[in-house]
Amino acid sequence: MTSKVSFFKMVKSECTRRLWLLTILAVLFAGALPVAGLMQLQRYDPSGYEIIEEEAAPSDAANVREERRIQEIRESMEEIVGKNNSAVSCITLAGALLAGISGFAYLHSRKKTDLFHSIPVRRERLFLVQQTSGFILYLLPLLGAYLLALLVGAIKGALWAGTWLAALKGLAFQILSFFLAYETVVLGMMLTGKLLVAVLGIVVLFGYFPATAAILDTYMNFFRTYIGSGKLLWRWLEYLTPLYPLYWADQTAGSAWALLIFLLAGALLMGASLLLYRIRRTEAAEQSMAFPRSQAVIKWLLVLPFSLAGGIIMSQVAMREDSLWMFFGILVGVVLISGIVEVVYSYDFRRAFSHRIQMLLMAVLALGVGSIFRFDLLGYDTWLPGEDQVESMAVSSWRWTSDNSYWEAEGNDFRYQDRSEYLLEHMKITDFEGLYQMAREGAESTRSEYGNSGDKSYICIRYNLKNGSTAERQYEVSDETLDTAMEQLVCTREYQEAAYQILTLEPQIYREMSVRDRFDKRMAYEEEQELIQEVVEAYREDLRAQELESWKRAEFLGILNLTAGREAWKAEWAYPIDSTFTHTLEALENMGIQLLPLAQESVSQIRVIDYASNEELVISSPEEIQELLPLLEQERNGWGGYEIQQENLGFRVIREEENQEVYAYLQEDAQLPEFFAARLDKN
């Protein structure tokens, strides 16, 4: 027969038994939300609030100061109650561990298991009682802390619609994070019969799949053409961990789909735990594994990837990429990990090396997998898709990429993105003959141990195939081949719209603009939207009108800095201005900003560095400066690296005002003035 005791009375009794957990979480959440929030918002009290004023403070500085204070206190409040509060996330994770272990610890004691199972209730009901009590013990202190934090925000005047929305998102995120981690802990308790083994099992469940992905990714580095950011089949393993929500919250602005996935994953884990609880034998208590048939499967899953990790560790200890050391490390890993697993299973050191045939098979398979990566048995490096299979291509090269940042818009915020990843993702070159030939040269060079000879550069290539798949490779190619291929692309629409975000982002998103000259002196700072949009539109027009030959001869003049987004999540871009940007220069002149060529700068000194003799020659005569200055160039055009035409000489051009200086180089085919050559020979 079954007991008629109310489900809610059972939950209440269980919560009372574990009241210590509620107390601990209440103290921790109170410190992380209302107390920490009060301390953080205290900085924005009108009496103590200070901001760094701009160079030219507006006449209504008091109003600007108050608006800035209100904006920052609201943003700070959103961070406190939002999903990016790392302190609350850590407490949530700790709460899941404590709730899961304490709620089902009776399964690891025969006496307690007999006691619980002697209660005349079905196992499903008993399972739900433990589950529900764990949730309540977590939710009550969390909700209380959130309410107190919002009360603090109301007192400090930091509540508005955005705060409530951030609080709802943050609360939902923390609950789902707890649900996912909690169910993982419960699953670990169900699979094991000893507390120590349960803790080890929980660690494995939390980190196994990301660790396996990291090990495979490390082995991929044996391939010379491998790009770490590439899309590979096992990359999805990185997401199979209860810790992933923490990474997700830090990297993205938020997605309802992701929250739904967390909910479904937690529900699946809960269903799996319930199923295991129904079929779990009472005698499984105080045994290492509750289900003996799972032991062999778990052993194989542990030994194979972590023995490969042993090969990497041994290579690192030996400080050389030697195949023998790697394979020796793999063998040691197989023996050690297999032995440790057997000891954990049996609690008997004498059984560490039982199942020797199984260990031998593991060693053979692990060595085979290691050989595939070490010797490229599958031809990863030399692989090249057929030209007729490619729909479009993308390329990224430091030699031909401006020193700029790339950002992805996510709502009102921006997320920084790696330069190569962004370019490969957004560039779609359909006329790719030059790129394909360059990739062919790179693939062929991998057949040689030392690759191409002469000056070389690395490039990243993405193949967008007609079947919908993509492939990415890194190649080493000669600078001559790279320059030839890139000169065909830099002025095309497909390349520019991927490489320069100013062409694709709406001008209205920018809230700040500043201009700096070649000496890095700020010439202007502007927040007026109309003026910012005027300069941005002029810059876009100049960039689209670029022609290769004029672009190659252009002189770098300054930098256009643009800012978008909120203060805490702002994105910044820096675009070079060269002498071909006539519309941009005209728009800046209308604002009273003039960027001068190097030959027209007010220079007080030119210090010449002779790298051959390691001596310095100082030129301070105005006549000599005027004769030498037109022969120098600071950069090719601001879009790439320096063009050093005179390898033995470097020039430091020092401006009169504020003693600012830049480095310059002798122009191609420029003849040294007689006075300079004579003084150089004399030295």
What's the SSE blueprint?
Layout: H1 7-17, H2 19-41, H3 61-81, H4 86-104, H5 110-117, H6 123-155, H7 161-191, H8 195-220, H9 244-251, H10 256-279, H11 294-318, H12 323-346, H13 356-374, E1 390-396, E2 406-410, E3 413-417, H14 419-426, H15 433-445, E4 456-465, E5 470-478, H16 479-487, H17 493-499, E6 510-517, E7 522-526, H18 529-544, H19 548-553, E8 556-564, E9 571-578, H20 582-590, E10 603-610, E11 615-619, H21 622-628, E12 632-633, E13 649-655, E14 661-666, H22 674-682
Antiparallel strand pairs: 1-4, 2-3, 4-5, 6-7, 6-8, 8-9, 10-11, 10-13, 12-14, 13-14
Would you kindly provide a written description of the structure presented here, covering whatever features stand out?
This protein is α+β, with helices and mostly antiparallel strands. The protein has five domains: 8-51 and 62-292; 295-374, no CATH class; 387-499, no CATH class; 502-590, no CATH class; 598-682, no CATH class. Helix content is 52%, strand content 14%. The protein contains 22 helices and 14 strands. The strands form four sheets. The protein has a five-stranded antiparallel beta sheet with strand order 11-10-13-14-12. The chain is globular and about 105 Å long. The model is unreliable at 52-59 and 641-645 (pLDDT under 50). The chain crosses the membrane at residues 86-107, 135-155, 161-183, 195-216, 256-277, 297-318, 324-345, 357-375. Residues 463-552 form the DUF6449 domain. InterPro entries: DUF6449 (IPR045611). Pfam families: DUF6449.
